[in-house]
Write a structure and sequence with these properties.
220 residues, alpha/beta, eight-stranded parallel β-barrel, 9 helices, 8 strands, metal-binding
C-alpha cells in the first residue's frame, strides 16, 4: 500500500453514498453508523434527489454528522452544494465541470477527487490538479458495468505506481478482497454497498478498516 503523503488525504476508506444501496434504511442513519465504525471520508452521491433543495438538506445533515465524527465530506459533482454546506471538497467525473473551473470555484484548500476508468484519465486528472482519484472498476460490480469489464489489480497497481497522488481502488471492493486491493500501490479503497448494504454498517466499517494499514494522522 502506497503511503498518503498529502496532509489533506488522511483516510484510506472512502465511503460513497447512495440511497438505493441502504436496504430501505434512512441514509443519514446508515452513514452515522459507518462513521461510528471509523469511516473518515464520505462522498454524497445522491442522484435520486428530487431537487437541489433536497440535495442541500441531505448535504447539511451529512456535514453535521461528518463534523461530529471528525470526518471529511465531499459532494459529487455539485460545487454549489459543496460551497453552501462548507464541504471539504467535490468529487467529479468525465461529465462534470472541467477540473480547473472547479478548483477556481473551490479554492486551494478544498479537495477535488476524480473518477477515472483508464490510464489516460488518471494521468490527465493528476496533471490538471486533482488531489486524488478513484480508479476502477477493479472487480466486477453491476453498478459500474457501464464502464466496461474490471480493470483488475495489475492495472490498478500500474496506474497507482505512475501517479504521485493517492489512488483509491473502486468497484466491487469488499471484505474478502480489500486487503488484496491495497497490497500493492493503491492508497486506499472506495466503496458503496460493502457498508451501505451491510446488515450492520458500523461493524462492516470496523471490519474493513481492520484489514487496511493504519493511516498516519496529519494536522493542517
Amino acid at each position: 500500500m502506497k503511503g498518503l503523503d498529502s496532509p489533506w488525504i488522511d483516510f484510506n476508506l472512502y465511503l460513497i453514498t447512495g440511497r438505493g444501496e441502504t436496504l430501505g434504511r434512512n441514509l443519514e442513519f446508515v452513514v452515522e453508523e459507518a462513521l461510528r465504525g471509523g469511516v473518515r471520508a464520505v462522498q454524497l452521491r445522491d442522484k435520486g434527489a428530487a431537487s437541489t433543495k433536497e440535495l442541500y438538506e441531505t448535504a447539511q445533515e451529512l456535514r453535521r454528522l461528518t463534523s461530529r465524527y471528525g470526518a471529511k465530506l465531499l459532494i459529487n459533482d455539485r460545487v454549489d452544494v459543496a460551497l453552501a454546506v462548507d464541504a471539504d471538497g467535490v468529487h467529479i467525473g468525465s461529465s462534470s465541470l472541467p477540473l480547473y473551473k472547479v478548483r477556481r470555484l473551490l479554492g486551494e484548500r478544498k479537495l477535488i477527487g476524480v473518477s477515472c476508468h483508464n490510464q489516460i484519465q488518471a494521468v490527465t486528472a493528476q496533471e490538471m490538479g486533482a488531489d486524488f482519484i478513484t480508479f476502477g472498476p477493479v472487480y466486477y460490480t453491476p453498478s459500474k458495468a457501464e464502464y466496461g469489464g474490471p480493470v483488475g489489480i495489475e492495472k490498478l497497481n500500474q496506474v497507482a505506481q505512475q501517479l504521485q497522488i493517492p489512488v483509491f481502488a473502486l468497484g466491487g471492493v469488499n471484505l474478502e478482497n480489500c486487503a488484496e486491493a491495497v497490497a500493492g500501490e493503491a492508497s486506499g479503497i472506495a466503496l458503496i454497498s460493502a457498508i451501505l448494504s451491510a446488515p450492520d454498517p458500523r461493524d462492516a466499517a470496523k471490519r474493513l478498516l481492520a484489514m487496511l494499514p493504519p493511516v498516519e494522522e496529519h494536522h493542517v
